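Thread title: Can someone regenerate the structure for this chain?

I was given the following input by a collaborator and told the matching structure tokens would be attached. They weren't. Posting the sequence so someone can regenerate them.
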Amino acid sequence: MLADVEQRARAAGADRIRLDTRNDLVEARALYARHGYVEIPPYSADQYAELWFEKLLPELTTVASRAITEEEVESSRLNLTPSARRTEEARPC
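Best answer:
Regenerated them for you:
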């Protein structure tokens, strides 16, 4: 779920994600740390926030963007979705 949010944030032009949590939400804190979020000074005055985190979102590489574009072009050319194209290719002649 975090990866999807990060991808959507990048697509919207964001260069970072910030979030907050409480001290007692140990699992949430561990999840954020595992995914590269680092603790930062408070950025809000939410009465329930006790810890604040941030993750910088690097831009997608040109190579990755080009690969997606080529996949989309190929799918459009064949007028098939990627999964349908795999099915077509798997059928015997």
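The chain has four helices and three strands.
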